[in-house]
Amino acid sequence: MTALCRIAFASGRNWPVKAAAPVALAVLVPCLMLCPAAEQPQGGAPDQSDALARAQALTGAGKNDEAIGLLKPLAAQRPEQPGVEAALGKAYYQKKSLPDAIRHLEVAIQQKPGDDESTQLLGLSYYLLGRATQAIPLLEKVQARLPRPDPAASYVLGSIYLQTREFDKARAAFAVMFSVPTGSAQAHLVLGQMMMHQNLEDQAAPELKQALTMDPQLPMAHFLLGEAYLYRSGIEEALDEFQAEIRLNPVSWLAYWRMGDAYSRLERWDDAERALKQSIWLDKTFTGPYVLLGKVELKKGDAPLAAGFLERALKMDPNNSSAHYMLGEAYKKLGRTADADHEFTLAQSLKQSEETRPAAP
Q1: Which CB contacts under 8 angstroms, 24+ apart, belong to 172-179?
Q2: What is the value of pTM for the model shown?
């Protein structure tokens, strides 16, 4: 209470009742308005907007359980409060609790049909639970509304279109994902690459040829077309494409590596050795050429050199079952029987683990 208020209260005690009333009102009302807030009664409800903001910050920091702990009481007290169901759905999505995420995201979209983030997360949740038919319209809606949708949503939508053989739609989705024009050579190149990821090499080849028709100098197009031919055992055609890629880009270590693979399939060991060494000279950090060189040197009868390449490969990739097996072969030829048996056992164990490992979504 301010000094003025205290004086008014103290002096008012000595006034006659009739005289005190009008004077007290005149003095005390302004005094009450001036009294500090700390002296006024407390007890208002907690600021729910602040709690929602704190929960959203926790979700952004990956602290999903803490965010959910804040949000659930808010949803119970005021289920209609904008943003609470959306925040709960996002937190559950991030912690991979997809049925819970779907339950809250569905409510969030009912409350706010234009909530693009919730729409996108709901579509992704449906897809991850194998409910692609429900995912498609939601992800399509986001693609149409947002100038730059989440790349994950574009990837999922494009992958679904590949599965349903809607290739033009898949190309459009991947074009959005990589920010290239839908009808461009780059879009055909991207679609060809994505087709190969899903073992659609026969469908990838026409896309890659179309990309090269539109832009004969397009980087990586010859390389990927060579990959498609190699998967289909068109080894001579693959070599032509790898050589064309190298003419465009003489430091394409990937093209030299796959060229070495193609030569090894033709049992042209010297050509394979040269191409694989060129790949290593350009990039020493990739295991593929070292493993193939181990195979080539074994075929050429140089077990010590083969062992050296394979040991180098396994330092970079200790779980490569093929490298362990070939290193066992090299040690066997060198008379290192115990080491050979150890490598064969490791190779068999790793191979079994690969066969039983669940496929990636």
Answers
A1: 173/143, 176/143, 176/149, 177/151, 179/148
A2: 0.72
Structure tokens at 305: 């050199």
For helices 321-333 and 337-356, what crossing angle results, to 10°? 160
DSSP label at residue 232: T
77: three-class secondary structure by DSSP: helix
Residues 56-96 pLDDT 10s: 888 888 888 888 888 888 888 877 777 888 998 999 999 99
Extract the tokens encoding 284. 């020493």
Record the tokens describing residue 171, joined without a space.
């190309």
Taking the CB of residue 155, how many other CB atoms lie within 10 A of it?
17
Nearest to 273 by CA among 296, 307, 290: 296
- Ranges of the chain with pLDDT below 50: 1-46, 361
| Count of CA atoms in the C-beta half-sphere (13 A) of 205 | 13
In the chain, the amino acid numbered 324 is H
Work out the angle at residue 153's Cα, subtended by the Cα atoms of residues 151 and 154, and round it to the nearest 5 degrees: 65
CB 248 within 8 A of CB 225: no
Using alpha carbons, select from 76, 136, 68, 119 the residue that is nearest to residue 97.
68
- pLDDT, one tens digit per residue, over 105-147 is 999 999 898 888 899 899 999 999 989 888 889 888 887 777 6
Rounded Cα distance between 54 and 57, Å, is: 5
- Asked if 352 contacts 333 with a C-beta cutoff of 8 angstroms, the reply is no
- Residues 208, 230: Cα–Cα separation, whole Å: 14
